[in-house]
Design brief:
The chain is of the alpha+beta class and 142 residues long. It has two domains: 70 residues, no CATH class; 60 residues, Inhibitor of vertebrate lysozyme, Ivy (3-Layer(aba) Sandwich). The chain has a nine-stranded antiparallel beta sheet with strand order 1-2-3-4-5-6-7-8-9, with helices on one face. A hairpin with a 5-residue loop joins β4 and β5. It is elongated.
Length: 142
């Protein structure tokens, strides 16, 4: 029984670094901070480590947003929370058909560095991702 406990604890510790880690601003590379400040002057945010990138969560014009920035200062993507009703009709229809009776917890518009737009609907601790036209792309663990 003790062995099982230690295996579970070790597995949990091994997985935690893969999740977003809260960072102090002093732990964020200068290029990432400068890029954020240039794009969003005067805005303050909280930083997380996300895989090899840095994510900053902030509010702008009353909207909750985040930006994923690499260590070289390139903004990989931005995400803006939107009302579920602002998701494209095709997304809402897909969610009704494939997640009948399940409430969409959060919705977001994602803009990639190349200008591509995706939409995200969060249900059951999963992010369901769609293209700009509302076509299903993938489901990812939240």
């Amino acid at each position: 029984m003790k062995e099982l406990f230690f295996i579970v604890v070790a597995a949990t510790i091994a997985v935690l670094p893969a999740c977003g880690q809260k960072l102090k601003e002093s732990q964020v590379p200068a290029l990432a901070k400068t890029s954020f400040q240039k794009k969003y002057p005067g805005v303050k945010g909280s930083w997380d480590k996300e895989d090899d990138n840095y994510e900053v969560n902030f509010k702008q014009d009353g909207k909750a947003m985040s930006a994923v920035i690499d260590k070289n200062g390139t903004i990989v993507e931005t995400e803006t929370d939107i009302p579920v009703t602002d998701l494209p009709r095709a997304v809402r229809d897909y969610m009704k058909a494939h997640y009948a009776g399940v409430k969409v917890k959060e919705a977001a518009k994602i803009v990639k560095a190349n200008g591509d737009v995706n939409y995200e609907a969060e249900v059951n601790h999963k992010d369901v991702i769609f293209d700009v036209n509302g076509k299903f792309i993938k489901e990812a663990k939240d």
